[in-house]
């Protein structure tokens, strides 16, 4: 039995096993989840795949996305674009982590979430909470291709 606001050992072990299994896959989690993107109406409304590269997301650091999934929708700010550790090379276009800060709300859940930004369009990524932030929930999505 756990107190409110704590995480059980079972949940940590289960989630850790899932992360370990997914990290062994050579494709990005976004590809595994079948990520697709749609450009905004400003870009003629055409369906087009936006490259999941570091240079696609770096100009959007500090910008607000709409994050939705599992019956929950909230605003999330792209706070960081980080190298994966251990990094083969710094600034790798195909191996990086996106960290989003979102307002605290319902219990943070891992899963496929749709991130929408007017300039980028929409992309579905597997994202999970990385800590129990006091003022905001932090979610991380890993791109590893």
Mean of pLDDT: 76
Q: Describe the biggest sheet? A: 6 strands, antiparallel, barrel
Instruction: Give helix and strand order, one letter per element, not per position.
Output: HHEHEEEEEE
Number of domains: 1
β-strand amount: 35-45%
Count of DSSP strands: 7
Q: So what's the oligomer here?
A: single chain
Unreliable spans: 24-47
Secondary structure category: alpha+beta
Rg (CA only):
16 Å
Helix content: 10-25%
Distance between the termini: 39 Å
Could you explain how this protein is built, in words?
The protein is α+β, with helices and mostly antiparallel strands and about 140 residues long. It has one domain (about 25-145). The chain has helices spanning about 10-25, 30, 55, and strands at about 35-40, 65-70, 70-85, 95-105, 110-115, 120-130, 135-145. A 6-stranded antiparallel barrel has the order 2-3-4-7-6-5. It is globular. Residues about 25-45 have low confidence and may be disordered.
Nutshell version of this structure?
The chain has helices at 9-23, 29-32, 54-57, and strands at residues 37-38, 64-69, 72-83, 95-103, 111-117, 121-131, 136-144. By secondary structure, the protein is α+β, with helices and mostly antiparallel strands.
List the helices and strands and how they pair.
Elements: H1 9-23, H2 29-32, E1 37-38, H3 54-57, E2 64-69, E3 72-83, E4 95-103, E5 111-117, E6 121-131, E7 136-144
Antiparallel strand pairs: 1-6, 2-3, 2-5, 3-4, 4-7, 5-6, 6-7
């Amino acid at each position: 039995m756990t107190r409110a606001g704590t995480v059980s050992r079972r949940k940590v072990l289960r989630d850790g096993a899932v992360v370990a299994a997914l990290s062994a896959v050579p494709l990005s989690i976004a590809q595994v989840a079948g990520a697709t993107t749609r450009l905004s109406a400003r870009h003629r409304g055409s369906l087009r795949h936006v490259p999941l590269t570091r240079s696609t997301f770096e100009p959007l650091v500090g910008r607000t996305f709409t994050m939705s999934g599992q019956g929950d929708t909230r605003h999330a700010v792209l706070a960081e674009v980080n190298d994966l550790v251990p990094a083969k090379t710094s600034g790798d276009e195909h191996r990086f982590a996106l960290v989003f800060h979102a307002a605290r709300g319902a219990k943070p859940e891992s899963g496929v979430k749709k991130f929408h930004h007017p300039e980028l369009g929409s992309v579905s990524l597997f994202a999970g909470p990385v800590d129990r932030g006091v003022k905001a929930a932090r979610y991380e999505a890993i791109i590893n291709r």
